[in-house]
Amino acid sequence: MDTNFSNYDRAEVLTQALPYIKRYTGKTVVVKYGGNAMVNENLKSQVMEDIVLLWLIGIKVVLVHGGGPEITELMDKLGKKPVFVDGLRVTDRETMDIVQMVLAGKVNKTLVNLLEMKGGKAMGISGMDGRLIEAVPKSEALGYVGKITKVNISAVDDLLERGYIPVISTVGCDAKGNSYNINGDTAAAYVAGALGAERLIMMTDVAGILRDPSDSSTLIPEVTVGEAKKLESDGIVSGGMIPKIDCCIEAINKGVKNVTIMDGRIPHSILMELLTDEGAGTMVVK
Question: Rounded to whole angstroms, how far apart are CA atoms 281 and 263?
Answer without folding.
Answer: 7
